[in-house]
Amino acid sequence: YHLCTTAAPLIQNLYGLPIVDKVSGLLAYYSSHGDLIHIDSDQRNQVRTAIIVVHGATRNADEYFCSMATAAERFLAEFQNETDRASILVLSPRFANLGDDDLDLIGGGTALQWKDDHDGAWRYGSDAVYPFSRQGPRDSPISQKGQQPKVSSFDGIDTMVQALLNTSHFRSLERLVVVGHSAGGQLVQRWALLTPFWENVAHGRNLPSKRMHAIVANPSSYCYLIPERWANNTWQIPGNDARRNCPDYNKWKWGLDPLPSSNKEYGVRYVNEAMHRLDYNLTKLKYRFLLERTHVVYMIGAQDRCNVSQPDGWCKSHGLETTCGDELQGRMRLERHNVYYESLGRTLSSSLMNNSGIHRPQLAHKSLKIAKVGHDHSLMFHSPQGMHAIFGKPTVKEDTE
Description:
By secondary structure, the chain is an alpha/beta fold. It has helices at 41-46, 61-79, 153-164, 183-194, 197-202, 240-245, 269-277, 282-290, 324-327, 333-349, 351-354, 377-382, 384-391; strands at residues 15-18, 25-31, 49-54, 88-94, 96-97, 110-111, 113-114, 175-181, 212-217, 229-231, 234-236, 296-301, 366-370. The strands form three sheets. Strands 1, 2, 3, 4, 6, 8, 9, 12 and 13 form a nine-stranded mixed sheet that branches. Strand 10 (229-231) and strand 11 (234-236) form a beta hairpin. The protein starts with 14 loop residues before the first strand and ends in a 10-residue tail after the last helix.
């Protein structure tokens, strides 16, 4: 079990990344190569692969950083016979909560913080609420519209991606991967659905499209592209009783229905702006996400099938989310993974997608089950399949027992 070895000294250094002009808060992050904006040119020119790894609900970005940096070292040694880690850059943002201790950033500054609740969590793309509330205390609501620019957790990932895709800085970069596990997997799935950077890459403005990837590992839930859910061995709109008990089951974060008060409002600023760029056209969104050169891998531990919060023998759910919107996606993560991935094929076969003019469109997204692994980010990342998915080698033969 490899969690953190040679990367350990690097977790003493927590950097701050500016996201939006005139915002005082910085996105906290760990880096294998130092300050992302000021990496010296010799180091930048050696980077061929860049990994952005997103932590889970406990916000243990240091552990995720160490695990991924160690996985990179193992991959180079075991599969490429290299010992120079300079070719792989690992970044691990920390989406801090209001209740977290102050973070000591290299170079000073104040780390952005999010209100982590059902309606405003960083994993769903919500805006940070501190430090730019002008009303004083950390638990104050964010300032009124127009008083301060706002910063979404998705803006933070976009800023990192934009810096890495700057070909005048990272001239040798061949592969860019955004990977998240558990709550981080939720963030990556929803970010990948909405980020404009697939468009930038697809039109040749940066990396060739085949070299940018998103990897979603062991999330509790997904944002569906269709209103149907799998129940009673068939795809169907939930019945009247289910919709009465769970009226928000297909609204953001679980789906793409707008709020009842408006057909152009989703409750999260980043989502509103993304949908505005797409003219609120869900068919266009589905086409771009599923067909237009987006490369997404959904990884699931074959043993991530517990749905109880307390240990029961081997079984512990590790914070499985169990609201009605989550439960309509399945009983546990393995089932939710299988059903969601099947829903993507159903989306492709719908009349809306078939009317796009593409004959028998093929889903570019992939599903990958990791044998004998439950809800554990290190075991997922360090498995042969996980390392190949992340670092780019062909996937080994899958064992799903």
